Amino acid sequence: MHNEDSQFAYRDVQLLIDGEWCDAVAGESLPVIDPCTEKTIGSVALARVADLDLALQAASRGFSVWRRMAPLHRAKVLTGAASLLRERSGHIAQLMTLEQGKPLTEARAEIERGAEMCDWMAGETQRIYGRVIPSRTANVTQLVVKEPVGVVAAFTPWNFPLNQIVRKVACALAAGCSIIVKGAEETPASCAELIRAFVDAGVGRGSVNLVFGVPAEISRYLVPHPIVRKISFTGSTAVGKQLAFLAGQHMKLATMELGGHAPTFVFADADIEGAAKTLAAVKYRNAGQTCISPTRFLVERPAFERFVDVFVDTAKAIKVGLGQDPTTQMGPMANSRRIEAMQRLTADAIAKGANLRLGGRRVQREGFFFEPTVFTDVPLDAALMNEEPFGPIAIMNAFDDIEAAIEEGNRLPYGLAAYAFTESAAIARTVADRIESGMVSINHIGLGLPEAPFGGMKESGYGSEGGTEAIEAYLQTRFVTTAGLN
């Protein structure tokens, strides 16, 4: 199908089951909406239980073959997928921008980071080591063996339709697992192109399967199914809790990368202008629809007004528009639900007495556009201070001492990401030691790298999707001891 407002073709998206691209058994589909125009641009196949059963059987067969593939072979498939992603970056970026809304420059960066993840895991698959434990008696061997856990069910969101999936697929394949991916229905084409890269790179038939459908229906069926041995979920804390409970009932291993509400500390001794410009650029990336987006800006009082002024001026200059326009710096929200959430949070903050310094309104044009928004002096009982905004809203409050700042930073049950800007080594150590967050970045934005751990604590989840830790979530440890053999 063609988008009437673009020369670029958007094709209807199918399922991938047992190495074949196919429509759903019942022939059902869902519409795909362009967030810039609110118009239907295509459709995505809607999987039901019959399709899931086919995917489960395919994944089971795929696992029995893929687990026996030599690590060097698995590494070649992963590096091959990385090369294909880079070769096809322009095409995939167009698809991602059309269905998700983010600027093309951000889409291309996401694809490159996905390729880097494949390259990283290609190395990790060749470093799955066991060990020998010295025995207490003669003629006894004691071995620790690392093995793939089995069939993985992965559930991914729409905000980073390629990067959130590639972390799961690359890790699973590197470990020797097979995987069923439940992609985001809002952004199916870019997701499908990622999976196509793995298929074209030579991954085993059935080792990777892709389905779309009603999220609750698919998770209720896949999570407890006996063929599935591990769950990986990226999304909201509320849904993550439900899936973790379901996985726990059936003793399934689970990795949960959930929501955040990142505290961002700016101390008076920092480079205030530089910090404000850096943080404004990061805050409005992907229209703020980023789990590690800085959200609660806690600024030391002597620097507060200066920081706010520079931040507001920087945000005011951000060009909001179509992602295909090379001058656009921020695209639309992904769907109407996010617009409604922004309007609700904004109205509540104003009603509670917060000071609106910039934006606060839906852009008056077609599409799900919302203005870059800044609030100051936001009371603790405002919804913004307690719910993850997941949008282009920055919250700024002043603090007088580090103890108060740390207390506020740790007040919420979230613990995914935190940021700090300071020239003091002592203050940096205090923040790093005492902030309850799975990831902390000081004086720069250094999160989300393939070689670094990526995950949270508290109600932001558990497990890591980066670094040497990532592959461990897809392995199980076995102990084998033998006596009396010649």
Walk me through the structure.
The chain folds into 2 domains: 15-258 and 462-478, Aldehyde Dehydrogenase, Chain A, domain 1; 262-449, Aldehyde Dehydrogenase, Chain A, domain 2 (3-Layer(aba) Sandwich). The chain is 36% helix and 21% strand. It is built from 13 helices and 20 strands. The strands form 5 sheets. A 7-stranded mixed sheet has the order 14-15-16-13-12-17-18, with helices on both faces. A 6-stranded mixed sheet has the order 9-8-7-10-11-19, with helices on both faces. The chain has a 3-stranded antiparallel sheet with strand order 5-6-20, with no helix packed on it. Strand 10 (228-234), helix 8 and strand 11 (253-257) form a beta-alpha-beta unit. Helix 2 runs antiparallel to helix 4 (104-124), helix 3 crosses helix 4 and helix 3 (89-100) packs antiparallel against helix 6 (188-200). The relative contact order is 0.13.
Low-confidence spans: 1-7
Q: What do the pLDDT scores average to?
A: 96
Class by SSE composition? alpha/beta
Helical content stands at 25-40%
